[in-house]
Design a protein that fits this description.
Elements (H helix, E strand, L loop, with lengths): L2 H16 L6 H8 L3 H7 L3 H23 L7 H15 L5 H7 L6 H24 L4 H25 L3 H12 L1
Length: 177
Amino acid sequence: MSTKDEILKLANRELQEKGLHSLSFRELAASLGIKSSSIHYHFPQKDDLIQTLITEYRKSVFGGLKQMEGTVQPGRERLVLLVEMIGKSLESRQCTAGVLAAESAQISENAKDLVRAFFEELMAWIKAELSAMGKTDEDAQLLSSVILSAIEGSLMLDCFNKRSEKLNHVKQYIKTL
């Protein structure tokens, strides 16, 4: 794994577990056994690191969703798999985009735009799956917002409680749609 990839992996884990304040170049460097100048080489400013984290998180989430397309029928099953995929990948940590949204006062406008774009794209994906289930456009729009909010809220609560109980409740709810 390249130094840049190691930095991203550790920074993402720190962000998901401890929040934005944990992204100290000095502390990341110490944990990796490198100099902080090595981190600055790859990410001149903290904002560069944050923007890369959200971009890579987006690629990971939507890459996983893309893999479903050829094997899973659109609709309820894909929505359940979305929740399962998020649960497995985060292991009782918070969503990268969710952390950044919660701490939006601390990030740049460019980073905020990337976070907004992630959530808009995910909500559009959820809406398309609900439409495939026969929901009206209006109902699909409303439910996509509710489901995305439920996923993000359950991740926060499950991280706090150190178990995936609430995320499992979201999955059970989706199965009733």
